[in-house]
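For consistency, the fold was encoded as tokens, which produced the following:
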Amino acid sequence: MDAFNQLSIKSLRLLVAVLEHGSFSEVARREAMSPSTVSRTIQQMEQVLQTQLLYRNTRAVVATQAGEMLGVHARRIMEQLEEAAEGLQEKESDPRGRIRINAPVVFAERHLAPWLFELGERYPRLQIELMQTDDFIDPLQDATDLLIRIGVMTDSTLQARTLAQQRFRLVVSPSYLKRYGMPSSPQDLSQHSCLVFKGFAGSQRWFFRKDSDVWQPYSFQGKLTGNNAQTLTQAAISGMGFALFPTWLIGEALREGQLVEALTDYQVSTSLEPQTISALYPNSRRLSNKVRAVIDFLLDKYGQPAYWDR
């Protein structure tokens, strides 16, 4: 414990920066100091802790296991200090500082990117850092302020605000219908080409129900199975078969007539549980002014129901 008491906030901040950028020289440039000063600060930390924090070579520096562990705690300390500073400035009306947002790739392209300019104009003191990935991330370890995630929300370690409900439609192109006709029931789809999403858990099942009946699962096959929703959507538009996707993805194609709804008497989904598009942040953090502002902005822009469902 005595060794940790000798670590300064400045040294921890430099360690986090080196871990993020993988370079003494890059951190030195950003911090307006010499690379040797940055390197010497890390060496002093290693001497105090009596353990190696970084592997050094001519191209980059990489964290050791001890360095990664200390980096996680150092990031939390930096975040807590940042939250404390924000709390002192909470009386100011305009959100300020860097906000780190992580969102799914395609959803961010469709429904975040078009609004970023207006968000920046509304809050000029806000610095937006947007990372796009479909992989799960730990917001505490990855220093993320706000996660946008889609599906069934189950992680109790995160607070959530629902931005929109995720609704599905079974769709097909007019050209496919002209050639093969419209099925009259889910069972009839077995005689058609279905374009099925296949992820790490296998091929997606499609669920159908009429009115308040019990959901019925179906497994279909067709000319194309894949793990990219945009590719499958484009294949459906070109006339390869039926697809079942959320309205935020296919809403534009429906409005433009590139796709039409099929089996409109049925409700459709890819799971038995309700799915949402949600804004998530860690339970351990106070909802900061900047995070609240971004969530409220998105809620205002998406509307109820969301504009892609209108």
